[in-house]
Here is the input.
Amino acid sequence: MSADGRALTCAIISPGTIFGEMVLLGQCMYDNFAEALDDVTVCVMSRADVHRFLLADARISARITEILGRRLTDLEQRLSDSVFKSVPQRIATTLLTLAAESRPRVLGARTPQIALTHQQIAALAGTSRETTTKVLRDFADQHLIRLARGRITVLDTERLTDHAG
Here is the structure.
């Protein structure tokens, strides 16, 4: 969160994973926070407990290393995208990434559905909500996506990939 209130979403994490792990590496992350998009159960562990688990089972250390590596790769890709891609390309990339991670939520649906707000997509793409709404409407006019309240359905992954650059 910036001083002027703008937010940058670093990751959307799925059930069974971890967050706040940077403290293990000695990093202070005072401006970072987590916000639940659905009902969640959060398990909080002290630094001492985590260290004990890391030493007790190498599989836990390997899993945390894997998660950190994946997040680092994702953040490096997003940084590269923010420098080299236009806003519509970043939004298309964000939609494709979210669609790849999602399963159709409506029974019988064959296309990926994204249950995020325009503001949340904007934070992931590194742009404003207003710009995101305009780009999403443009994509909908081109029949790349379908917009519904609280849901975006990707209709044409191939053409959206072309827009992502």
